[in-house]
Specification:
Elements: E1 10-14, H1 20-26, E2 31-36, H2 39-49, E3 56-61, E4 74-80, H3 89-99, E5 100-109, H4 113-119, H5 139-148, H6 161-178, H7 195-200
Helix pairs in contact: 4-6
């Protein structure tokens, strides 16, 4: 939330993965709580967050049924690329709403349906099975899901075309080398990468 950053924010990152959003907020001094079903992700983020000026930090291992935080806890809630993994996205959205203070801001994202369909010919079938992507959300469907949870959509946009192509090449390279890709979930796509993918990756 670049235009709304405040040191006194309490940010909850639900489905934190490798912790990119959590660390972004921690480096700005916020109180951060990072949640994930994978305890290894939580341990790694805990290690990385020690070198930040976060006002406070807490890692929580949870499947979000429910989220073990009190109601009205957070001023900022992040849930990026998580809802496509859960059995009941509507129920998880209700939990995100419950833990938000009145007027809280939310950053919620899911893979675009078009991008998912582009990957289907290349990705292993497990990529679209539990615990990976078990829901594909059309844009209008996702908007209805968010508003039905009681949230107001301030902005809705699409991004990620480059990384969608990157993943397609990843799947193809893995198939060519070994007959099966090295890993199934997006989180498991870790270096070292195939040279073509390193050449395509922008340097930040």
């Amino acid at each position: 939330f670049p235009s709304h950053d405040k040191v006194d924010d309490v940010v909850v990152d639900v489905g934190c993965g490798s912790g990119g959003a959590t660390l972004f907020c921690a480096r700005r001094g916020a109180h951060v709580v990072f949640c994930d079903v994978n305890e290894n992700n939580i341990a790694q983020v805990e290690e990385r967050i020690r070198d930040t000026p976060a006002r406070a930090s807490q890692g929580v291992v949870t499947d979000c049924s429910p989220i073990p935080l009190e109601s009205g806890f957070a001023s900022r809630i992040v849930s990026m690329e998580m809802l496509e993994h859960v059995d009941d996205p509507a129920a998880v959205l209700q939990e995100l709403v419950r833990i938000g203070k009145p007027g809280a801001l939310y950053l919620i994202s899911v893979p675009d349906a078009l991008a998912e369909r582009v990957q289907m010919p290349f990705a292993p079938k497990q990529y679209f099975q539990k615990p990976n992507h078990i829901h594909i959300f059309e844009r209008e469907e996702f908007a209805r899901l968010v508003t039905a949870a009681g949230l107001e959509i301030v902005e809705q946009s699409s991004y990620g075309f480059f990384w969608n192509l990157w993943m397609c090449i990843y799947w193809v390279c893995g198939e060519a080398v070994s007959g099966t890709p090295e890993a199934v979930s997006h989180d498991c796509a870790q270096p070292p990468y195939f040279p073509i993918l390193d050449d395509l990756t922008p340097v930040s």
